[in-house]
Amino acid sequence: MKNKLKRILCLTLLFTLTFNIAVFADDGPEDFEDDNTPAPEIDFSAPTDTTFDDTVWTIEYEDGTEEEYVPNPKARWATIEGVAMSLDFKTLGKAVFSTSVATNNTSYDIKIVTKLQSYRNNTWTTLYTKTKTTTISSGMNSGSYYVTKGYKYRTRNTITVYNASGKVIETDTLNCTRTYK
Q1: Which of 39, 123, 161, 166 measures 20 to 30 Å from 11, CA to CA?
Q2: How far is C-alpha 132 from the geometric centre of its chain's CA atoms?
Q3: Taking 90 as the threshold, does the pLDDT of residue 2 lie above it?
Q4: Non-local CB neighbours of 173 within 8 Å, separated by 6+ positions
């Protein structure tokens, strides 16, 4: 019963953060515009209909290999309850991204490092990095950056969960990839 209550509290906090807090990067006026774009709704399932766009969620391993991410947090993670990622392209090439994470323990802290990367010349190049640390069991990292049409982009999200003593409990890297057509 106590674990269920903690999970409900954790998810409630995550949804409260999602609907009440929007965090935006500030990387200078030349390549970033903070226009209070609302954060997207959280959906803890991977994209099912890719006929409309080519969004792909992948898991990245330490050796650099990737495989498609199929949401089943119980099988993959010990402490992470769920992860939601989005990458959308708006007017004039504004790439808007968001990553939300929830854990199964209300005393855990979360650090989300999101790198917006472009794929050119057979390699991923980081354009922009945004880090968000939260002292509660759920958190969101969101921001935006202007990009050019005709290229593949991804958010490379490194998620680290810490206990109250600051010890790393779990870490993982997930990507959300799309082509800006």
Answers
A1: 166
A2: 10
A3: no
A4: 59, 60, 156, 157, 158, 159
Residues 47 and 49: their CA atoms lie apart, in Å, by 6
Q: Which two tokens stand for residue 45?
A: 């399932």
Burial label for 137, CB within 10 Å (0-12, 13-18, 19+), is: buried
Q: Given this model, what pLDDT does residue 72 score?
A: 57
CB 37 within 8 A of CB 44: no
Determine the distance from the C-alpha atom of residue 33 to the mean position of all C-alpha atoms in its chain, rounded to a whole number: 20
Domains of the chain, residue spans: 2-180
Rg for the chain (alpha carbons), in Å? 16
| Whether the predicted pLDDT of 45 surpasses 60 | no
* CA pseudo-torsion sign 23, 20, 168, 173: negative
Return the pLDDT at 62: 73
User: Tell me, what's the pLDDT at 143?
Assistant: 95
- For 6, residues 6+ apart whose C-beta sits below 8 A from its C-beta are 104, 105, 106
State pTM to two decimals: 0.67
DSSP annotation of 92 reads G
Asked whether residue 22 carries a pLDDT value surpassing 60, the answer given is no
Q: How many C-beta neighbours within 10 Å does residue 156 have?
A: 19
